[in-house]
Amino acid sequence: MESLPHCETLLLEKQGPTLVVTINRPDVRNAMSLQMVAELSAVFSQIESDLSIRAVVIRGSGGHFCAGGDIKDMAGARNQPAAEGEADPFYRLNRAFGQMIQQVNESSKVVIAVTEGAVMGGGFGLACVSDVAIAGPTANFGMPETSLGIIPAQIAPFVVERIGLTQARRLALLGLRINAEEACTLGIVHQAADSDEELEEMLCHTLDRVQLCAPGATAQTKALLHQVGQENMSGLLDDAAQKFAKAIRGSEGAEGTIAFMQKRPPSWAEPD
Questions:
Q1: Alpha-carbon distance values, 189 to 52, 112, 226 (Å)
Q2: Which residues of 6-29 are buried (b: 16+ CB within 10 A; e: fewer)?
Q3: In terms of Cα–Cα distance, which of 66, 196, 202 is closest to 140?
Q4: What does the pLDDT look like over 93-104, one tens digit per residue?
Q5: Strand partners, 60
Q6: Is the pLDDT higher at 30 or at 1?
Q7: pLDDT tens digits for 211-268?
Q8: What is the Cα–Cα distance from 227 to 10, expressed in whole angstroms?
Q9: Superkingdom, according to UniProt (predicted)?
Q10: Going by DSSP bridges, is the β-strand pair 140-142/118-120 parallel, antiparallel, or unpaired?
Q11: Is 254 exposed, middle or buried (0-12, 13-18, 19+ CB in 10 A)?
């Protein structure tokens, strides 16, 4: 395993093939500061080539996932006049966040969001770029930007990808807040737990399923899913067929086939 970057706003814990990333600013309901954005980006950059990590769990400390952007950072940007020839500080602040969630979205790892308490603004966007999202009983989701006189500039495209234009319009244009049950109905999260114990059980089951799937095949499948709608279907299927042939002739394909015939778990499913 490669060494993980030092973080002040995040707690990092390696649990077998899983990296648990806990957002750790409980005094501000884990509001997302520029430093946190930079640290999350550094973590995902570092682990991208780390084959020992197959899943990343993102959750928050103190009963909240993430309450959105940090007001102090926004105030600081307001006090910085845009220098001639340089980008507006608000642009840089907003765009840095967008680059980070795009990085999380496109990570080759399986990203699992465990949401509790406030899941607002940027936190909402972070949940929407996870591969699997699980909500606890206290989770409360929202896009409050328009009620604050601003726009959900960087998260809106990911929300539309997650739940479709019609539902994204309703949430964003009315600045609504919804509970875990409705978030599950809309597809923001995949499961909603009735208790903290059930939340942990759902997480454990999800991580068990990740362990059963070959890491290389999982990463390539995730990349393929992201290509849908980005290029013409014929070209996409040609490329997918090439990748399929390479996968089935590769070490994971061989191991998976032999393990199936021998009625045993494949090597990647064995505990470390």
A1: 27, 10, 18
A2: ebebbebeeeebbbbbbbbbeebb
A3: 66
A4: 899 999 999 999
A5: 23
A6: 30
A7: 999 999 999 999 999 999 888 999 999 999 999 999 999 999 999 999 999 999 999 9
A8: 31
A9: Bacteria
A10: parallel
A11: exposed
- Strands (E) in the chain, as ranges, are 10-15, 18-23, 55-60, 110-115, 118-120, 132-135, 140-142, 177-179, 191-192
d(CA 111, CA 151): 26
> C-alpha angle with apex 170: 72 to 129, nearest 5 degrees?
60
Say which residue the tokens 């299927």 belong to. 237
Q: What per-residue confidence (pLDDT) applies to 227? A: 93
Shared fold status for 10-211 and 214-269: no
Average pLDDT score over residue span 30-49: 96
Nearest CA to 151 out of 234, 69, 81 is that of 69
CB atoms within 10 A of CB 36: 24
The two structure tokens encoding residue 247:
């996968």
| Residue range 10-211 in CATH 3.90.226.10 | yes
Q: How many helices (H) and strands (E) does the chain have?
A: 11, 9
The pLDDT-based confidence of 92 (bands split at 50, 70, 90) is confident
Q: What is the secondary structure of 96-116 as a DSSP string?
A: HHHHHHHHHHH-SSEEEEEE-
pLDDT at 270 over 80: no
Fold topology of 214-269 = Lyase 2-enoyl-coa Hydratase; Chain  A, domain 2 (1.10.12)
pLDDT at 88: 82
* Contacts of 98 by beta carbon, 8 Å cutoff, 6+ apart: 153, 154
